[in-house]
Amino acid sequence: MSHAAAPGKVILFGEHAVVFGEPAIAVGIDLETRVDVIPDERLKAHTVNGRSISTYAHLFIEKAVSLLWENAGNTTPLAIRTSSRLPSAAGLGSSAALSTATCAALLHLTNQFSEVRLARAAYETEWLGQEGRGSPIDTSTSAHGQALFISREKQEGHLWTLKRGERVWNIHHQEMPRLTMVVAHSGQKGKTADAVAKVQMYVDRTDFAETIIQDLGKLTLDGRDALLKGDMHRTGELMNEAHELLGMLGVSTSRLDELCRVARDHAYGAKLTGGGAGGCIIALSDEPEKLKEALQAERAEAWIVHSARKGARAWGRTVGRPSRRPRREPPEDGAGEEE
Ligand code: MEV
Prior knowledge:
With 339 residues, this protein is α+β, with helices and mostly antiparallel strands. Helix content is 37%, strand content 25%.
């Protein structure tokens, strides 16, 4: 049996803009998804939590199994178990954590685990499952944990490069003080793929939306400077500005705006995080307990979260022979298959 765990994430700056190649900063959080995989010859087909695998209920798992197990010529059915502390459709990267944990367990099972291979396979899985929308920010953060800086250009701390058509994302490790954040759920489900498609349409049709995307990119760079200086007041102000811009892009809701207003009484700043159109806000505060209570008084489910020290991990039994020579990494554009 092979096991894996992968963290969810929050985006501090740059959601939506990152899809268009603008810079972004994301942090892994200490809420995780766990996946166990057992090859079992007695099964007729793969199962997930005791039920037959189905595209409708287990889209990302099905894509990962096809990419990393079936495409490699394995025919033994797999019994897969999943459990998660991440709420779904909340902007906290639950589908990325599931894809990443599943890929990590399968890469470990077949003796191919490496962080970069995992980041590529998990992005490929999400890409196939979401019909091609979005950037690798969620899956790369889940693979690496800690904090990531994503930009078009390669910089210090470079981890890997991912490409889709014309778009290039260079993923970097970002040094950052360990953050304590409060996350509150609007109670509305936010479908990232729909929000991304809506913003794409807006950008295709108006110059105004393109300007907002560029402004979000500039805010990310200012936010990174403020975080590195430990200037929480400035970081908070920039988060507030980012929320306003995301509102102009049409991905906030009145409930998210209201929760941000409430949070700001006890926080340096607050903004929606992830795809928006529902889902969660994040706030940075020195008084996380007070802030959590204030948000709960608004009938919001709220959590105190910390940045994750580690990204995805995998352990347990393997079925593949360990390769003696290091295998060549999968190509940057498209993942899972060796060049
Ligand atoms: C979702 O967590 C972040 C978005 O920028 C989409 C993406 O980058 O894939 C909204």
